[in-house]
C-alpha cells in the first residue's frame, strides 16, 4: 500500500490530479485537491498506476507517493 | 535511395515544425491556469508532452536523413555546433541552434521529477527561443519555402502560437482585474 502526499506549498490548484484520480481526490471551490479520506491519501493497489500518472502530470510536482 | 533520403529529410523537417507548433501553442495556452474550453487539463498536458516528443523523434529523423544525404552536404559537427555549415551557414545554424535548445528542454522534461520544478521551468523558457528559431530555419533553409503550401503552413503555425499567446495574456488581464 502507498500513500499520496500533497505538498501544499507547491500546489497551485491546477486540478490535473483530481481529473486523473477522481476516486481519491475531489476539488475545493478554488480547484485545490481534497483527499476524500482526509489527510494523506491511501492508494489501493488497483489505483497505483493512476496515482503514478497523477504524480507525473502535476504541473507543480506537488504530489509524492510514499511507500507505507 | 538518394532521392528517398532527400524527401524524407524535408518531410520530417516540416512535420517536426507542425508538431513543435502544436506543443508550444498548447503549452502557452495551458499555462494560463484555466482549462481550455471543455478539454480536461490533463488531456491538454498529455497532447503538449506527446507532440513535443514526437517532434523530437521527427527531428532526429530530419537530421539523420540529411546527414546521410550527399546533396545536403552536412558535416557531423553541424548537428550540434551552429553556424559552421558549408551552404547557407546562417539558416542551417538556426536549425542547429533550435535542435540544441530543444534537446535541453526535452532532457530536463524527461528528468522533471529529479530536476525539480524550478530548474525544469527555468530551462523550459528556452522553448520560446527554440520555436521561432525553428520557424525561421524552415523559411530560410527550406527547399519548399517558396511554395504556397509551406508558406501557408508557416503562417498557420505563427497564427496558432500568436493566438495562444493572446489567449493567455487576455485571460491573465481578466483575472487580475
TrEMBL record, chain A:
It comes from the Bacteria. This is Ferredoxin. It comes from Labedaea rhizosphaerae. The lineage of its organism: Bacteria, Bacillati, Actinomycetota, Actinomycetes, Pseudonocardiales.
Automatic annotation (TrEMBL), chain B:
The keyword Membrane applies. It comes from Labedaea rhizosphaerae. Keywords: Membrane, Transmembrane, Transmembrane helix. GO terms for cellular component: membrane. InterPro entries: Fe3_Rdtase_TM_dom. The lineage of its organism: Bacteria, Bacillati, Actinomycetota, Actinomycetes, Pseudonocardiales. It is found in: Membrane. Residues 12-133 form the Ferric oxidoreductase domain. This is Sulfoxide reductase heme-binding subunit YedZ. The chain crosses the membrane at residues 12-30, 51-71, 91-111, 123-143, 149-171. It is a multi-pass membrane protein. Its main location: membrane.
